[in-house]
Write a structure and sequence with these properties.
GO molecular function, one term: isomerase activity
Radius of gyration: 14 Å
CATH topology: Chitinase A, domain 3
Catalytic activity: [protein]-peptidylproline (omega=180) = [protein]-peptidylproline (omega=0)
CATH architecture: Roll
Strand content: 25-35%
Family: Belongs to the FKBP-type PPIase family.
Number of helices: 2
Structural class: mainly beta
Keywords: Isomerase, Rotamase
Number of domains: 1
InterPro entries: PPIase_dom_sf, PPIase_FKBP_dom
Order of helices and strands: EEEHEHEE
Largest sheet: 6 strands, antiparallel
Helix content: under 10%
Length: 125
C-alpha cells in the first residue's frame, strides 16, 4: 500500500474528439497488489466527470473517504473495466451510455451521457 496515502484527487484531461462507442480502459498507474476479479468487492477512491462537459458528477475524494462495494452491483462499465486491475493502480474508464446509465430518457440524471471515471483501487475482497 506504499504510495497510496500520498495520492491526491486525479486531474482529468479534456478528451479529444467524439465520445467512444465502446468501453475504453487506460491504466494511469499499474498496481502491484492483488488483482480484481469479476464479482469481487472492491475498495476504491474515484471521481467521475461527464465526457462532453467535463462537469464532475461524483467523487469519493470530496467526501474524504474511500468507498467499498461489490462489483456486481455497479454499472456495466465498472464490472467490465475494473477486473484485471491491481491494488495500488489508478485506471481511467471512458464509459458509453449503454454501459453506464442507459440511453437518454432512461430515468437517471446521467442517462444518455458518456462518462469518464478515474479509479484508484485500494483493496479487493
Amino acid at each position: 500500500m506504499e504510495g497510496m496515502t500520498e495520492r491526491t484527487k486525479p486531474e482529468f484531461d479534456a478528451p479529444e474528439g467524439p465520445a467512444p462507442s465502446e468501453l475504453v480502459i487506460r491504466d494511469i498507474i499499474v498496481g502491484d497488489g492483488a488483482e480484481a476479479k469479476p464479482g469481487d468487492t472492491v475498495t476504491v477512491h474515484y471521481a467521475g466527470v461527464e465526457y462532453d462537459t467535463g462537469d464532475e458528477f461524483d467523487s469519493s475524494w470530496n467526501r474524504g473517504e474511500s468507498i467499498q462495494f461489490p462489483l456486481r452491483g455497479l454499472i456495466q462499465g465498472w464490472q467490465d473495466g475494473i477486473p484485471g486491475m491491481k491494488v495500488g493502480g489508478r485506471r481511467e474508464l471512458v464509459i458509453p451510455p449503454h454501459l453506464a446509465y442507459g440511453p437518454a430518457g432512461a430515468g437517471h440524471f446521467l442517462s444518455g451521457k458518456s462518462l469518464i471515471f478515474i479509479i484508484d483501487l485500494i483493496a479487493v475482497a
